[in-house]
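Lab notebook page, bench 4
Experiment: in silico fold of construct C2
Operator: M.H.
Input chain length: 70 residues
Purpose: comparison with the prior construct
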Amino acid sequence: MLSADDSKQEIAIAIWRAAIDLFGGDRTAADQWLQNEAIGLGWKRPIDVMQEDPQQVLDLITRIDRGVYT
């Protein structure tokens, strides 16, 4: 069974991979996106929102990937 810390780490890895995929494999662009405010997160940085609600960040990445930006 995964500990809470292991689970958080797995979610963080999933978000990082999803962000890289979103930017066509460009790790720098993914990192920049994670570090900058996002309108779809109420102008919060995805990296900060990940700590409280990682699913919200994954959902936003999915929406952006499908062309829904807000």
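Observations: DSSP finds four helices and no strands in the chain. Helices lie at 4-22, 27-35, 46-52, 54-65.
Next step: discuss at group meeting.
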